[in-house]
Amino acid sequence: MALWVDKYRPKELSKLDYHKQQAIDLKRLCEQQDFPHLMFFGCSGAGKKTRIQCVLRELYGPSAERLRNETMNFTTPSNRKIEITTVSSNYHIELNPSDAGIYDRVVITDIIKQIAQTNIIDTNGQRDFKVIVLTEVDDLTKDAQHALRRTMEKYVATCRLILCVNSTSRVIPAIKSRCLGIRVASPTHEEIIGILNQICQKENLKLPAELARNIASKSERNLRRAILMLEACKVQKYPFTNNQDVPEIDWQRFLNETANQILMEQSPARLEKVRDRLYELLSQGIPPDIIFKVLVQVLSKKCEVEVKSQIYEFASLYEFRMQMGSKQIYHLEAFVAHFMSIYKKYLIQATEMMMDMDE
Amino acid sequence: MQFLEPKTTEDLIIHPKKIEDIRKWFMLGQQLGKSNRILLLIGASGSSKLSAMKVISKEFDFNVCEWIFKAEVDRELLMEDGDRGYHYKKQSELFQEFLIKVSRYNSIFSQKERILIVKDFPNTFLRKGNEEEFWTILKKYKSIGTNPLVFILTDTNSKSLNIEMNLFPDKIRGQLGIDTINMNPISTTLMKKALKQICAKMKEHEHVDSKFIEPTQSIIDDIIAQSQGDIRNAIMNLQLVSQQGSIDLSMQTKSRTKKAGKAKKTPTDKINKGVGRDEVLGIFHGVGRALHAKKEEDPDTKKIKLTHNPDSVADCFLSQPGNYIELLHSNYLKTFSSIDDVKDFTKIMSASDIFQTEYRNADKLHVLNLNLVIRGAMVCNTEPAKGFRPITGYANKKFRSVEEKCLQEYLSQSTEFNDGHRMSLKDYFVDYTGYLKLFKSFGAGSSSL
Asked: How much is the pTM?
């Protein structure tokens, strides 16, 4: 029961659907003897992981696809035990060190040491290094990033790192300069439409152009989401119709409702209800930055330009603080409170203006 | 203190009903002919647990035998054990010896029956994992002991020190037939009565303390309020005050007591530094004080002033600023009525999170941060909401289970998709879960599922 997203994921560099020139460059890079550390960056759903897997295959052949899951144990200096699940083949290991929370530094140093201390003995003599794939490196603490920088230099003879990040802004410059950065831009709407059509062809479905465009624009150039949407549409109703509704997933609906609640009433009691809803979203694993983004988008639509500028000012302030701090809810809440206060004033002003006009 | 120790049940200032309860326990033991009964006496410190026990045992003609642990005495006793230097007997062994020997062999001086009282628990039993040992001793005692045994426990807030929970779980209580009597902190009226009696007594016996000056009623009221139901503390303060008897103090207290009547439910004023123990605020209490900040107008300068000093509130929570701030955050919205005030306060909360996250210089910074938050809560709320708004627990508590469930689900499913590659937490929750639910809800008839 593979999902389409997984089923139609390209496995080789030559089969990638977009950024073809980049694919060719990557391929050449793999053919060279001198393989650098890589850092893939780009929005989610742009295809970073797909490219990483293709690169691994290019380096080691199909055997890099034979994967096993392992749980690794680490012990912090304070004797706390941490478990991290990893995915590995004979040639590479893939893990998300930020799973360890504030102890990510231990994971970074330990794992790289463990992997890098043993040389690869390959009969074919294909490659003399192993690859460590680290995901969500931008979520690492500064401490861990510095540890990463040191170990990167030390073990360069036996291993290479492939980092996967959403935004390079939170990666320290020392790491950035040690990696070859590869930007994976989100696919354009046309590219998404093209891919959706391809999938439908393979599945023997007929996809109306209108629906394809609709899905592409709703996916916010996130290819994974687009394909999931397509499959959801298919499950919901087939044959497709031109103006078929693209189903919204529950957290999106929930968040939109929350925004509407904020617009309906501005009071501490309402804020408390909104906070509960935000807690619920957070506890279901929706990242706070996405919540923040959607809220700002929906809320600012309802305002005039002058008010908008104020809202963006506070949004940027609290979004920044949210990245700095540890309790996201405080900052989300602060933004909502500020919005409520501003919006309330704006509404009162607007009604006064109306009254003046009537007179 | 000692001079004033109660001698008869009439002197005891605990509620008559409780005295009756303890008496009943004694009588029941005599009626049943069972002498080795065990009782748990639980109460706040200074609620005269031990005194009550002593007085009532006397009434029933028991000799009181208290367990006292003294490390030095034991060392001397055990010196003889020694070529290999000191040999310490284990505390638990000593304890067992005490229980069994004392109850077996009567004192040579009196033929009265004895009652054993254990107040200071041997430390070893408080450690985790040693409960079993304690229980076996208790069971042994139950089978061979001959005298009644009373354990006196003080209420504590901390979980690790909660003897009642750890050492006397319901199972053991049922097995050994342990009875429990809870003592309440002493009520204000009883305390008032007692202090009056004491004053009278002190006057009668002037030879005991020639410097005794009877304090004014207002001071006594103050002492009672501050002792928070702790009679020992109250008597000690009384002694102190009656010796000073300074006019200054009484003046100061006078102006305070006017408010004391009004603020009966809310805590005592804590300006009178002369008497009273350092105020210990429960966390709920402290949050309440910040959220329902009382303000008063200074008669001289006409400026609005806070009744409670934010510093002193902050002082109570230095050890756990994080918890305090979180509880405050969970509850503040109920007490605000204007969204503009909320806006100001959230600004502070947001800044406080940044401070709280900073780990360098944490000890100093977190104290300042706590202060900032408390002051913020007190000042920002210009139009407090009316009516009774109880503080409920942490707001995010009810979502913890959801969070855990989601995480479990993620861990078990994260490798099922994505060709065996692990997908990140974000991707899983943002994209996959929602659509998976959709697929399921649209029916299983689909070909792809």
From this structure: 0.66
